[in-house]
Amino acid sequence: MTLLPARLDPVFVPRIWGSRTLAPLFPDKNQLTEPVVGKASIGEIPIGEIWMTGNGCRFASNAPDGLAGKALGDVWSSLPIEWTGTAAQGKSFPLLVKFLFPREKLSVQVHPGDEYARQCEASAGGVGKTEMWYVIAGDAGAGVLINLKPGVTPSSFRRAIAEGTAEGSLEFLSIKTGDAVFVPAGTVHTIGPGLVLCEIQQNSDITYRVFDYERRDTKGELRPLHLEKALAVMNFGEQTGGKIDPVQIPRGAVTETFYVACRHFAIEKWEFSEDISAITSGDHFDLLIILEGEGAFERDGQSLPYSTAHVWLIPAALGAYHLAPTTRTTLLRTYVPPNAADLAHRLTRCGVPESTLSRLIHP
Length: 363
What we know:
By secondary structure, this protein is mostly beta strands. The protein is built from 7 helices and 23 strands. The two termini are 35 Å apart.
């Protein structure tokens, strides 16, 4: 089977809190007819999320070996380990990459962990949802609410919801372009307006709303809340979400910034203006999310052009390849780490002190 980087086409998803402009990632698509869940046109309805690796995302026309036009969710379980990696587990693609465009606040919400999802959400895939947000763009003063304030209990939070003051139980976190926020399952949160985010998460869409600002859907009905489920999964102990303090590691022509690793994903940023070399590990695939820049993947005499807002699946057994930028490029690399100890050893070899690893690597 031919091994080459393969691009995935996006799916545009309407959300009640979404935007009618998709700049800076898709500035030319604000008034165009594009594939949208619900078959509407961009510009006619607010788009809140753009799914880049959802089960319904299709391989682009230049994908190798008959993958072109096929949905990721339909083919993933049949791909060989040269694509998935020797450590791959499960039949479903494990990572969901989204771009978020909130024009209004999202609901105050929480996501379950794997155990609760397996027991109570089997029909929805039975997978929990831990995620990270990377800030692509942010207005002055923009931020999120994340983590419960000290002293908040289930009874006091329930009372705040009934009184319409749920936001007052959460901590406000100011964020700006280049910041990243880790959101483990069980962390109550909401995202404010004035942001464009890249969200990397487990491949799950299970969300429990606890407060939604009395908003009504297109039928004029209040959106459902899920208070009892939310209280069952919400973390009322030590709060572990929040802004990440990353570590920057220069490597030749590329600057790598390491953000976070847990059993679900590892995430780092690459910034470069000159040609760079990379190599896959064989035990896991990589996803490369192009945040800005243009250039090409080069391998064995073939050249595949990339540009802003592309997401590429890099086969595990691809081996060595090159990235040749024509403009300064910033991308996020994410993958499912087979072994946290190996990752810690790699960072230690790069000069990261062991005392720093605890804030980067989570169980």
